[in-house]
């Protein structure tokens, strides 16, 4: 700024913005504002407190918005009367920060008013217009919030249904295994009755219990991650060998229990050890020992099933907790892959990892492919909000492939030196060019009436661009649609400066 001078009513009247004002109104403006001259450079910066209202008298200004961590020029004009800065200060929301950055490209003159003074002038001189604009702003904001909440509840409902389906499977497995285990324990109690009638001596029982413990260890070892995992052919061959051994040794129904022994990791070598023990015990027959060990293996396998199903339920609950971020602070450093994983878990009932089973409700398989750059560092973010972004984009991608099936690809990588790039891609029909530029607009939707609110991508855009100072864009051709999210790897200077529900307005043209 090089100079400040009083304004002249006639000069203001020459601007289209003020040409219809009365002499009294122009006098009020001149009494409360001034003319300021600026040399090339910034006059207001996006995100900083909105303190002044600017009207260009002569010169040239350029307007820009932050996108992907860069300042992108959105408008450049020398038309007299264009305005910028705190031009929404009089609305019900009371503009708190500048919506865009403005700088002059050559020496320029502006009419300048302090934001509170400009707001009071508008309320005093144009009360009806201000009331109408307030009503529009408040009504739009209220509608947007209501639909926003509904969008979140709908997404939560869909995801809850999927999570319930996933939880039902391990819960049912636990119920079945517990019921079977109760029966096995009952049978084991009957075996203990042999002690009462002296069928088995204490020495024989001690040997069988010792053998039982060794078999239990073998079952646990065979089921561990480092245990031996047999192919279908190897399993069949081992079952044949065990069945032949049991049949050769006169075990009634040996072929029926052979699969249980093989599943527990007990082969013919183990059976020979059992036979050796019974040969040394006059009071215990091989048949009794085999039945004793069979009950042991069955019980251990059932307990393994209960343990694995319980772990699965715990993992699903942990993923749901990660997704909802109920245990997290609003702003923190997080692993983007953890956030993506927890969101994808919520869609697991609609996806398949290898295309081998149907992952959609209407019979069309949707395959999931993950191409993740694990070298990406953790990012400063609002984890719960980013999960909402992934949810909205993935839900749209799955909807696009609902009729024909396809592949959902989630890809991560570094973008430049200071950005993380997340791509969510689908093989659906694509987004037509004529509507591509509108898909991030509030209330715009291509879904049938009643199915979409048109706020999912608008919400995602606000979270990524406004709240995280990142960028959200779409590239689409038939068979390859990509939503690209760019997020800064460093903490934004003022993370709360731009709330998600602020209006996304850059200023205004003369029209």
UniProtKB/TrEMBL annotation:
EC code:
2.7.13.3
Q: Which reaction does it catalyse?
A: ATP + protein L-histidine = ADP + protein N-phospho-L-histidine
Matching InterPro entries: cNMP-bd_CS (IPR018488), cNMP-bd_dom (IPR000595), cNMP-bd_dom_sf (IPR018490), HATPase_C_sf (IPR036890), HATPase_dom (IPR003594), His_kinase_dom (IPR005467), RmlC-like_jellyroll (IPR014710), Sig_transdc_His_kin-like_C (IPR004358)
Q: Which Pfam families match?
A: cNMP_binding, HATPase_c
Could you confirm whether the keyword Secreted appears in this record? no
Q: Which UniProt keywords apply?
A: Kinase, Transferase, Two-component regulatory system
Histidine kinase domain sequence ranges: 302-491
SMART domains noted in UniProt: HATPase_c
Under SUPFAM superfamilies, the record lists: ATPase domain of HSP90 chaperone/DNA topoisomerase II/histidine kinase (SSF55874), cAMP-binding domain-like (SSF51206)
Query: Which residues belong to any copy of the Cyclic nucleotide-binding domain?
Result: 43-122
A Gene Ontology molecular-function term?
A: protein histidine kinase activity
**Superkingdom assignment:** Bacteria
What are its GO biological-process terms? phosphorelay signal transduction system
Tell me yes or no: is Nucleotide-binding among this UniProt entry's keywords: no
Protein name from the UniProt record? histidine kinase
Organism field: Mycobacterium triplex
């Amino acid at each position: 700024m090089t100079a400040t001078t009083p304004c002249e009513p006639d000069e203001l009247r020459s601007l289209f913005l003020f040409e219809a004002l009365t002499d009294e109104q122009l006098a009020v403006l001149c009494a409360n504002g001034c003319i300021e001259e600026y040399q090339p450079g910034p006059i207001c910066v996006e995100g900083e407190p909105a303190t002044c209202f600017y009207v260009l008298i002569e010169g040239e200004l350029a307007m820009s918005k932050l996108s992907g961590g860069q300042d992108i020029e959105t408008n450049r004009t020398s038309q007299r009367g264009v305005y910028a800065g705190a031009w929404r200060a009089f609305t019900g929301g009371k503009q708190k920060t500048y919506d865009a950055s403005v700088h002059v490209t050559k020496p320029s003159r502006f009419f300048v008013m302090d934001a509170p003074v400009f707001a009071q002038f508008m309320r005093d001189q144009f009360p009806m217009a201000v009331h109408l604009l307030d009503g529009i702003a408040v009504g739009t904001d209220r509608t947007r919030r209501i639909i926003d909440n509904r969008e979140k509840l709908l997404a939560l409902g869909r995801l809850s249904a999927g999570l319930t389906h996933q939880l039902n499977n391990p819960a049912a497995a636990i119920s079945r295994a517990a019921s079977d285990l109760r029966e096995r324990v009952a049978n084991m109690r009957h075996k203990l009755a042999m002690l009462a009638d002296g069928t088995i001596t204490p020495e024989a029982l001690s040997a069988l219990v010792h053998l039982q413990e060794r078999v239990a260890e073998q079952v646990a070892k065979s089921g561990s991650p480092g245990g031996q995992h047999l192919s279908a052919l190897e399993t069949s061959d081992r079952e044949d060998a065990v069945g032949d051994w049991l049949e050769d040794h006169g075990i009634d129904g040996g072929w029926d229990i052979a699969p249980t022994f093989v599943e527990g990791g007990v082969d013919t070598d183990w059976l020979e050890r059992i036979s050796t023990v019974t040969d040394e015990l006059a009071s215990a027959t091989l048949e009794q020992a085999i039945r004793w060990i069979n009950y042991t293996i069955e019980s251990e396998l059932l307990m393994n099933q209960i343990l694995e199903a319980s772990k699965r339920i715990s993992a699903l609950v942990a993923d749901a907790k990660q997704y909802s971020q109920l245990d997290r602070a609003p702003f923190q450093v997080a692993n983007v892959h953890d956030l993506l994983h927890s969101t994808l878990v919520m869609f697991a009932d609609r996806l398949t990892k290898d295309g081998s089973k149907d992952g959609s409700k209407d019979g069309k398989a949707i395959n999931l492919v993950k191409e993740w750059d694990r070298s990406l560092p953790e990012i400063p973010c609002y984890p719960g909000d980013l999960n909402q972004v992934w949810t909205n984009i993935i839900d749209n991608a799955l909807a696009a492939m609902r009729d024909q099936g396809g592949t959902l690809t989630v890809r991560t990588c570094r973008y430049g030196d200071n950005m993380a790039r997340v791509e969510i891609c689908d093989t659906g029909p694509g987004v037509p060019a004529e509507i591509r530029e509108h898909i991030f607009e509030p209330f715009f939707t291509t879904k049938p009436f009643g199915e979409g609110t048109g706020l999912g991508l608008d919400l995602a855009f606000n979270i990524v661009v406004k709240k995280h100072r990142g960028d959200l864009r779409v590239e689409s051709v038939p068979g390859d649609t990509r939503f690209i999210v760019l997020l800064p790897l460093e903490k934004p200077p003022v993370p709360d400066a731009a709330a998600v529900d602020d209006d996304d307005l850059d200023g205004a043209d003369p029209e």
